[in-house]
Amino acid sequence: MSEALEPAGKFTDTVGVLTSWNDGVVLITRRDGESVRIDERSLVAGKVVPAAPARRRGPAASYEELARVSARAWQPVESERLGAWELRAASGFTRRANSVLPLGDPGRPLDEALRQVRDWYAARELPAYVQTATGAEGTQELLCAELAARGWEREVSARLHIGGLAPVGDLDADVSRVELSRSYDEAWLRRYKRFGVPGPHVLKVLASGPSVWFASVPGSGESPAAIGRCVVDGRWAGFMAVEVDPEHRRQGLATAVMTALSRQALAEGASAAWLQVEDDNDGARALYGEMGFAAHHAYHHYRYGAA
Description:
Layout: E1 2-5, E2 10-13, E3 17-22, E4 25-29, E5 35-39, E6 43-45, H1 63-72, E7 78-82, E8 85-89, E9 100-102, H2 110-122, E10 129-134, H3 141-149, E11 152-164, H4 166-169, E12 179-181, H5 186-191, H6 200-207, E13 211-217, E14 226-233, E15 236-244, H7 253-267, E16 272-278, H8 282-290, E17 294-304
Parallel strand pairs: 15-16
Antiparallel strand pairs: 1-2, 1-6, 3-4, 4-5, 7-8, 8-9, 10-17, 11-16, 11-17, 12-13, 13-14, 14-15
Protein name: N-acetyltransferase domain-containing protein
GO molecular function, one term: acyltransferase activity, transferring groups other than amino-acyl groups
InterPro entries: Acyl_CoA_acyltransferase, GNAT_dom, Rv0428c-like_C
């Protein structure tokens, strides 16, 4: 939609999903999940814009397929169904494992569903989060707008990237130091600094998934110089927890870890890859872009009653 701005004669465009038009205010949800409010009196023109074609640098995939694959790669300690929604909890370890995955209809009015969500998390002394997505066919711009209208606040946004697996496995990387294992060890956990003392809930989440592999590059001290985790699930290989000791960066270790894990996933029959990158991680986005990954959609965590 085009909006007139001062001084007269200047206009600005907003492109996104029209999520509401009430009380003289138009609400547009952009691809990145940001909501824009426009006074209808300032509207000059509007038109239907076809969805952008998928960038076919990598495999074709729907949002729902990727949401389910990524959820299986990072499973909660406990979960409960609410219609087609899944309520997930893991004692607070990561938002992904402690949020609602709303793929479909909760089977009741939205306000009632959200009340049950709040009660479920409150019973576990956890904040209530809903994970949503924007920017691709079948994503949840309307739900994002409904959550925002009810006081849920968007806290964290990231993008899920996809790409072909073979190009990563074919990289000319020195993988001689990369050690692969079916399980983590104490050294791997020391490098993965996402917790204090790893309780049983942390260990269960890390070990979850159809076919899980852990990568480690030994360092000079007690902690590895680099680590990574890969979950193979049918045609998909998901990568996460790729971390490098700051003292060993710019030595190609992240590439070596990705390459070694990719070759293992290829050996198991996978052909496509996915990973998640937070919006403020420019270094990771550049690295994975060089490997052939491209953003498929953005995902967000909405929290109820955020300060």
